[in-house]
Amino acid sequence: MVKNRQFQQPNLPEEPMQTEKEDDSLHASFNVELPFDIPSDVEEENIADDSVYDDDEDVPAGPVTYTVIDNATQRGKPKLVDNIGFSYTLKTEKNGARTWQCSVRNKTIHCGVIVHEKDGVFIPPSIQHNHTAAPGTLTATKIKVTTPVHSENVRSGRERKDTNKMSNNVNTADSMIISLDKITDRSKEHSISNSCEIEDRVRNLEKSNRKLESENFELKEKFLELQSHSMKYNLTFGGIRNQDGYEENTEDVLRSFLLEEMEIPNVGDIQFQNLHRLGERSDGKERSIIGCFTRFSDHERVNRAAASKLKNKPQFSIYQQYPREINERHKKLIPKMKEFKRQRRHAKLVYDKLLVDGEVYNLDARCEAPPTIPGQPLPNNDGDY
Ligand SMILES: [Zn+2]
C-alpha cells in the first residue's frame, strides 16, 4: 500500500491527473459543463434584448432609468416610465416598497413584467416584455400630466361621464314615474269600472229582489185566497160547552146547539163533511168547533140565523173560518167596523176588507206586515183541511 502511494505520488503531474479524472468517470465531465448551461441561456436572452434595442434608434444607450410621474393615469394614480419606452402602473405599495406592473395589459397582450422599487431604487425586470417598447412614452406622459388642457379634458371627461350617468338615472327615474302614473291611472280606471260594475250588479239585484218580493206577495195572497176558498164551507162555533171531554160526540153537541140555541129547523137534514173541536185557547175559553158543511146552503142558513138568534147570547159566536193571516186582518178592522156601525153606517167585512157604505175602508190593510201576536183568540185550522 505504502509502496503504491509512493509510486503514485511521484507520478502525479497535472496532465496525467486530468487524464485520470476523465478516465474515472464520464459523468464528471457532464457535471462540469452543466452549471454553465443556465447562465449562458440567460446571457443569450440579454444579448437578444440588446439586439432589439439596438435596432431602435430612440433607445438610449447606458443603464435603464425610471421616472415616477404622479397623476399620470386616468384615475390620478402614479405611473412609472422608463427611458426605453415601457410604462408601468403601481401594483402594490408597502413600507416604502412598491411593485410596478407593465401597463400593457389588454385583451390581446398581457405583459407580466414587474419592476420592484425599494426606497427609490429600481430593480430592473428579470424577464422580457412580450411586446415592443414605445419610445417617447416618458416625454409624452410628462406632457400629458403637465398640460392643463389634459387634466381639464380628464376632468370634463369625468364630469361628462358623471353627467351622463346622472342624466341616465334621471331618465330612468322619469320613466319609472311615468310607468307608475300609468299603473295608477289604470288601477283608477279599473276601480272606477269595478265600482260601476258593482253598482250595476247591486241595482240589478235590487231590481230582481223587488220583483221576487212582489211575486212572493202575490203568491202569498193567492195562497190565502185559495186557503180561504177551501174554508168557504166552514163555520167556527165559539162558546159551545164541551159535554164529555175527549169522549164528546161533537156532531151531536153541535146539532143540539143549532136546534136549541139557534132554533134551526130540520137540523137533521144538515150534513157535515167534517166536524171537530180546535185546540185549547190561550184565553181559557171553551174550545171552538169547526163545522165543515157539505152543502153551502146549509152553511148560509146557519150563518144568516146567527145575527138574530145569538144577538142576546154573547157567550156564543159564529164566524166564517178564515186562515190565521186573514183573521189577523179582521181583528184590526173589527173595532173600526163597530165604530162605523155605531155611526149608523153600513159596514161589513168581505174577505179581508172592510166595506163602509160600499167603499173599501182601508186599502192598505193587505199590505201591513203579518202580525206576530201570540195565542189564538180566533180559530184557525191551518193544516187541518
Ligand atoms: Zn410589458
Automatic annotation (TrEMBL):
<feature type="coiled-coil region">
    <location>
        <begin position="202"/>
        <end position="229"/>
    </location>
</feature>
<dbReference type="InterPro" id="IPR007588">
    <property type="entry name" value="Znf_FLYWCH"/>
</dbReference>
<feature type="domain" description="FLYWCH-type">
    <location>
        <begin position="73"/>
        <end position="131"/>
    </location>
</feature>
<feature type="region of interest" description="Disordered">
    <location>
        <begin position="149"/>
        <end position="168"/>
    </location>
</feature>
<keyword id="KW-0862">Zinc</keyword>
<keyword id="KW-0479">Metal-binding</keyword>
<keyword id="KW-0175">Coiled coil</keyword>
<feature type="compositionally biased region" description="Polar residues">
    <location>
        <begin position="1"/>
        <end position="11"/>
    </location>
</feature>
<dbReference type="Pfam" id="PF04500">
    <property type="entry name" value="FLYWCH"/>
</dbReference>
<keyword id="KW-0863">Zinc-finger</keyword>
<feature type="region of interest" description="Disordered">
    <location>
        <begin position="1"/>
        <end position="26"/>
    </location>
</feature>
<feature type="compositionally biased region" description="Basic and acidic residues">
    <location>
        <begin position="152"/>
        <end position="164"/>
    </location>
</feature>
<dbReference type="GO" id="GO:0008270">
    <property type="term" value="F:zinc ion binding"/>
</dbReference>
<protein>
    <recommendedName>
        <fullName>FLYWCH-type domain-containing protein</fullName>
    </recommendedName>
</protein>
